[in-house]
Design a protein that fits this description.
With about 270 residues, the protein is of the alpha/beta class. Helix content is about 40%, strand content about 15%. It has a seven-stranded parallel sheet, sandwiched between helices.
Length: about 270
């Protein structure tokens, strides 16, 4: 429980998986900087991190906006002096913007969903990579570890229940972005990986959790947990990838999905 001692971890988002990751970083000895669109949520999470024994800082920013993303990352460096790890959870559903099957998808829905889920991740990744390139490596030669959050739906779709094509495209592009970043920066001591969670109990999945057909499907599709994953299930994987336990791991997509990607469970069964 000491894998991040002396390390600084930046977390994007402040609820669900992001909140779990922030608290796990603190219990592993790390300092945490939280970036969220909501100042109230960011402050509340920072207080929880402090209560858990960690050091915390925070900034409110719309990470789809270039200047705000860069300023927030600069604030993290100003607060702690460096960034050793990033767990970038920022994103969300595009249904309310018009996401859906491609034949029904509006261009406004497409643009906003990719902005929320892909542009935000790219802006954070660019800013933190620039910061990491300029900092001194640790004793194991690491300048930093970046973990981007994708989704099991990018590679294992269920059209009967989750026909949100812009969201899936954005989450698939996150994996491609991480892979090419990993190849580019391996020689600089920067590792880049992705996590592809299955359906997880978070505020974003609240609608799905109230649908009996979806709940039954998830119970069969994620048999290892017999239903929805917890946010801590996903955070545990992030901590591994951020720590020196994964010092030889880069360019990988780790599915944390309770068996979703290898289990046959038709949605209409």
């Amino acid at each position: 429980m000491d894998r991040l001692r002396g390390r600084v971890c930046l977390i994007t988002g402040s609820t669900g998986i992001a909140a779990a990751a922030a608290l796990r970083c603190a219990t592993e000895g790390g300092s945490v900087f939280i970036i969220s669109r909501s100042p109230d949520h960011a402050l509340e999470l920072a207080e929880h991190v402090t209560e858990a024994g960690g050091q915390a800082g925070w900034a409110a920013a719309d990470l789809t906006q270039e200047a705000e993303a860069e300023a927030a990352v600069e604030a993290a460096v100003a607060r702690f002096g460096r960034i050793d790890g990033v767990c970038s959870v920022v994103g969300g559903s595009g249904r309310t913007f018009g996401d859906g099957p491609i034949h029904e998808l509006t261009m406004a829905g497409w643009d906003r969903t990719l902005e929320l889920n892909l542009r935000s991740q790219a802006l954070v990744a660019r800013a933190v990579t620039r910061a990491m390139l300029g900092q001194t490596p640790t004793d194991v030669g690491s300048r930093g570890s970046i973990v981007l959050v994708s989704s099991v739906l990018a590679a294992h779709p269920v059209p009967e229940l989750f026909a949100t094509h812009a969201y899936a495209a954005a989450k698939g592009a996150i994996v491609a972005l991480a892979t090419t970043m990993a190849a580019t920066y391996a020689g600089n001591g920067i590792r880049v990986n992705t996590i592809a969670p299955g359906l997880t109990a978070t505020p974003m999945s609240a609608r799905a959790a109230t649908d009996p057909a979806t709940s039954e499907f998830v119970r069969r599709k994620q048999p290892l947990v017999e239903g929805f994953l917890t946010a801590d299930d996903v955070a545990s994987a992030a901590i591994y990838l951020l720590s020196d336990d994964a010092r030889a791991v880069t360019g990988q997509c780790l599915a944390v999905d309770g068996g979703w990607s290898v289990t046959s469970a038709p949605a209409n069964a």
